[in-house]
Request: fold
Amino acid sequence: MDEQKRKRAVAVLSVLSLCNLAVIFGNSLLSRDDSSKKSSFIASLLAGIFRDADFDTLEHIVRKCAHFFEFFCLGALFICLLYFIVDLDLARTWSHTAFPCLGCLLAASTDEMIQVFTGRGNSVFDVMLDFSGSVTAMCIFFAAMLIYGRVRGGRKKRGSDADADTAPPQTQEPGADVMPPQENE
Reply:
């Protein structure tokens, strides 16, 4: 990838990361009632599918899944951003993973701190849930990149093996593969 495209990818991922943070913090600024209305709407849709489930339980699950998903997206954006910043080097991305992890942990902590001021309260469990969403996205990123590298590397090997089959055989000097006699002590 040329330098111009890489810089453009960094810019786009930076803007998307900021937008994701704005959504996360914007949801944290909602009052308890407004937040409940949002999750109740989704829970009412799910109640049609899970008819035997308790509505309050469904609403709780929706809220926790929203926490996880918001930070899953943030983790994916942060790790992709780092990948492009370190010039598409997977080993360097791995060695610098602490930066997006700390960024996501800071965002999760800030998210819960904001909720203290909106009267919704904060929860260490939610910070852990948010952070686990981010780490899950980063793990999926690395797994996908490793699989992609193996598939791509396998194609290169197959291509080089095919080239070796069509290459003319190497000629050896007569007796080159014979070992010289060893002396007995």
